[in-house]
């Protein structure tokens, strides 16, 4: 994948699919993509996408609606068909649809866990898999790379482990891993995949962020800060960006480094003994706050 400084950020002639596009982050992303020139397939639950359809049409772009649950195979199939068969091609996938069922782990029901993982992780998988199969077949047919960009929606919850969001954090961790696997599986076909971890004030996060008290002209947690990043990642200008996890909010983009080994321990004997483990591994953690654990607190402490 080549990159020329100042490469085109235009999506003219491209077709993008955006899930959960009826409101909040998905709506802002759909409008940013349309503003960059893309025609769209937008998805949401029945009736929820009517407003964004009108807004996309007002920008002079073609737009089709596929209503339905993103975790249903039939919805993913319909989105691919709308893009390829009706609009003529597929270039960009933005997996955004999601929901929450917040509860402390010890009170969480089977259904609350399954519902969140189903919509977020399975929903991302189904459309990504369909798009991947389409792009790979295209690449084989034409004997070379095709154009494709996947932008997934993870969350800092997969790093910080919110105590009331075990289901959400687990789903978002899965999405981060799915993104890297997608990038690696499709790189030879010319397709890129990245994940954003947005902080955005939407209906889904209203209880998390509350009201805007910043006094800024644009709310630091407005989806308006996130949508341009998604449109950029979808564009040819971002040709060298793939397999990345990006924290995005308030006019800031932070590239998250891959996890690294902090400390390695090797047994001095043939196999570990409890005493040696306690001396070496236990000793390493003896002076640490056990409440911190793996959580990436440094990311959560980033200020605007």
Automatic annotation (TrEMBL):
Pfam families (alphabetical): adh_short_C2
One of the record's GO molecular function terms: 3-oxoacyl-[acyl-carrier-protein] reductase (NADPH) activity
The protein's enzyme class: oxidoreductase
Keyword set, alphabetical order: Oxidoreductase
UniProt xrefs under InterPro entries: NAD(P)-bd_dom_sf, Peroxisomal_Beta-Oxidation, Sc_DH/Rdtase_CS, SDR_fam
Key word Oxidoreductase present: yes
The enzyme's E.C. designation: 1.1.1.100
Protein family according to the UniProt entry: Belongs to the short-chain dehydrogenases/reductases (SDR) family.
Protein name: 3-oxoacyl-[acyl-carrier protein] reductase
Species annotation: Nocardioides salarius
């Amino acid at each position: 994948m080549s990159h020329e400084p100042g490469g085109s950020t235009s999506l003219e002639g491209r077709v993008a699919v955006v899930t959960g596009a009826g409101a909040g982050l998905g709506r802002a992303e759909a409008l940013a993509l349309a503003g960059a020139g893309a025609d769209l397939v937008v998805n949401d639950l029945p009736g929820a996408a009517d407003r964004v359809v009108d807004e996309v049409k007002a920008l002079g772009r073609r737009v089709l609606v596929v209503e339905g649950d993103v975790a249903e195979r039939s919805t993913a199939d319909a989105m691919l068909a709308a893009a390829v068969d009706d609009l003529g091609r597929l270039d960009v996938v933005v997996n955004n649809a999601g929901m929450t069922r917040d509860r402390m782990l010890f009170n969480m029901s089977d259904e609350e866990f399954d519902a969140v993982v189903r919509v977020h992780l399975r929903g991302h998988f189904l459309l990504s898999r369909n798009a991947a199969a389409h792009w790979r077949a295209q690449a084989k047919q034409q004997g070379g790379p095709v154009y494709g960009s996947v932008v997934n929606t993870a969350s800092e919850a997969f790093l910080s482990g919110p105590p009331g969001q075990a289901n959400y954090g687990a789903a978002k961790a899965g999405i981060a891993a799915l993104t890297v696997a997608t990038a690696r599986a499709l790189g030879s076909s010319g397709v890129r995949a990245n994940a954003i971890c947005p902080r955005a004030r939407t209906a889904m996060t209203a209880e998390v962020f509350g009201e805007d008290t910043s006094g800024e002209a644009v709310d630091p947690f407005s989806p308006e800060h996130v949508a341009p990043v998604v449109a950029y990642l979808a564009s040819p200008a971002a040709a060298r960006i793939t397999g990345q996890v990006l924290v995005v909010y308030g006019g800031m983009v932070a590239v998250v480094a891959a996890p690294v080994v902090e400390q390695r321990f090797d047994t001095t004997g043939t196999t570990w003994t409890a005493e040696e483990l306690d001396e070496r591994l236990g000793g390493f953690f003896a002076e640490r706050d056990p409440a911190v654990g793996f959580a990436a607190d440094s990311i959560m402490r980033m200020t605007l």
